[in-house]
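Query structure, 553 tokens:
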């Protein structure tokens, strides 16, 4: 297989480990912390996880390894959406496993959790692993979104584990995947299988974080990739001086990606969904805020600009959330089929008008027709609107254009407003990992083996002090149940890892809020450029602006 010169060089890169993990497996011991409890709903979570709840946080420190030596057969699973660095988690796990004993085995289960259920796996070798070191993507074994939740699935997973003699399973995933890891760990403990389950925190969305997990892997690379593209667009906008670029960035239900990209590139506008929810902003109010920037810049002769739109923005707008809920109810049961059989959009719109409240229909009416129709075309498996598919970058561009036309008629605006639309999502999920993510992920995998060796179950691999050089990072583990609470999912109360949203009193948002009024009017763009892998550490090994601000650096 032909590979690029960059990939050839990256295959040779040796990721940096936390200082205390560098001295070899035999010189690492455990320091126990306090017993833990879930972030909320303690009695309910404890009742659901009686064998894995309330365990102590642990930190690895230098000292004689006191773990019981035994042959390890470990399975690894990539779960959920791709994130840069997944291959390095597996590489770190493999290297630690083999450093502990050449007879140890690492099996990769293909296609996500379904690989464990269906017993589809491959045994890793040096040659196999070496072809994927420091590369992006999850193509080493593929990924999937299957949840192991039925009695049949649990029984099949247990049978697979017994068939291969598994001692542990490592699940690399986001909040839902690690929730599933906790459930599987509890099942294995309750059935006395002897199989441990360890999770690793992955998601480019940045919403798997808390006081213990400083950031999820992939966030650094993805936001740097998007920021390079946004910086390129900013430079183009400042060169051509004739377009407003509306850029939607991935991030699902939180605005961490949008905020980090704004801190990296200083655009004229960046919407933060959590702020829209807190202030109960309407679509019209948000459009007015953007239109204010457009008008002020036009008055200075700058008929161009850049606006960053988080993927989940409309979910945070209260009136839009109400509209979505009413649409879901309107099409519940067999009513969706009746709606789809109506011959024209005019008749369908009358059906919609008669089924929505007056307030929600007023919101629906201000939407561009393409967005109106989009709300009724794509449904998820539960029959609900797929909000993530809404082209919010086009929605706000059209709403702003309408506001500007009103101002033009009133004689308060006389500029030019031409738009370009972009969505940056998949471009960042499988990029070559940055040095930070390459190092962080390798450390997560190496550390996951240490948790296995010391017999921990239902724990998340934890690397902290991440704003410092890798030599100063700390390694350890935390019970996954510590991050959990109960949430309503599909009509049932379910234990889930609590998502972390942008904190409006946090340092990253406060820094952004202190500068955005100036950025809205001035052309104060910054151009991050491409991710750098070789050169000074203050260029190549930097982590995100978000993490630096959170740590006061």
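Result returned for the query:
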């Amino acid at each position: 297989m032909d590979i690029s010169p960059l990939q050839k060089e990256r295959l040779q890169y040796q990721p940096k480990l936390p200082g205390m993990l560098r001295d070899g497996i035999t010189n690492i011991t455990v320091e126990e912390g306090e017993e833990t409890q879930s972030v909320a709903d303690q009695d309910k979570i404890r009742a659901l996880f009686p064998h894995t709840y309330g365990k102590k946080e642990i930190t690895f420190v230098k000292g004689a390894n006191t773990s019981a030596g035994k042959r390890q057969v470990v399975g690894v699973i990539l779960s959920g959406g791709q994130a840069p660095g997944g291959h390095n988690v597996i590489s770190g796990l493999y290297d630690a496993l083999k450093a502990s004993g050449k007879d140890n085995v690492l099996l990769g289960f293909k296609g996500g959790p379904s690989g464990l259920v269906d017993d589809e796996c491959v045994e890793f070798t040096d040659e196999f692993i070496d072809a994927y070191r420091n590369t992006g993507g999850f193509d080493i074994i593929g990924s999937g979104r299957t949840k192991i939740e039925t009695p049949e699935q649990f029984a099949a997973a247990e049978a697979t584990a017994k068939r291969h003699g598994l001692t542990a399973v490592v699940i690399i995933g986001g909040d839902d995947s690690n929730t599933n890891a906790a459930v599987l760990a509890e099942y294995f403990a309750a059935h006395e299988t002897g199989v441990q389950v360890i999770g690793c925190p992955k998601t480019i969305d940045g919403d798997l974080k808390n006081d213990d997990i400083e950031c999820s892997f992939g966030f650094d690379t993805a936001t740097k990739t998007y920021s390079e593209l946004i910086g390129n667009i900013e430079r183009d906008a400042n060169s051509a001086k004739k377009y407003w670029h509306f850029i939607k960035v991935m991030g699902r239900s939180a605005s961490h990606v949008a905020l980090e990209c704004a801190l990296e590139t200083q655009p004229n506008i960046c919407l933060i969904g959590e702020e829209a929810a807190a202030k109960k902003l309407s679509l019209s109010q948000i459009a007015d805020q953007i239109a204010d920037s457009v008008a002020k810049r036009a008055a200075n002769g700058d008929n161009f600009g850049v606006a960053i739109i988080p993927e989940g923005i409309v979910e945070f707008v209260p009136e839009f959330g109400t509209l979505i809920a009413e649409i879901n109810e309107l099409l519940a049961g067999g009513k969706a089929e009746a709606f789809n059989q109506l011959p024209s959009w005019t008749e369908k719109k009358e059906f919609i008008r008669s089924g929505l409240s007056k307030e929600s229909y007023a919101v629906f009416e201000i939407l561009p027709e393409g967005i109106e129709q989009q709300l009724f075309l794509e449904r998820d498996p539960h029959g609900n609107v797929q909000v993530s598919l809404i082209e919010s970058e086009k929605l706000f561009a059209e709403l702003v254009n309408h506001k500007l036309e009103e101002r033009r008629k009133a004689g308060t605006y006389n500029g030019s407003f031409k738009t370009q639309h972009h969505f940056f999502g998949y471009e960042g999920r499988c990029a070559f990992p940055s040095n930070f993510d390459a190092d962080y992920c390798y450390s997560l995998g190496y550390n996951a083996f240490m948790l296995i060796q010391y017999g921990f179950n239902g724990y998340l691999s934890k690397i902290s002090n991440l704003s410092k050089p890798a030599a100063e990072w700390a390694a350890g583990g935390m019970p996954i149940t510590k991050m959990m609470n109960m949430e309503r999912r599909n009509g049932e109360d379910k234990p889930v890892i609590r998502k972390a949203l942008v904190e409006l009193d946090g340092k990253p948002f406060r820094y952004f809020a202190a500068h955005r009024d100036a950025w809205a009017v001035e052309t104060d763009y910054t151009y991050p450029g491409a991710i750098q892998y070789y050169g000074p550490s203050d260029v190549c090994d930097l982590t995100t602006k978000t993490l630096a601000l959170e740590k006061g650096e």
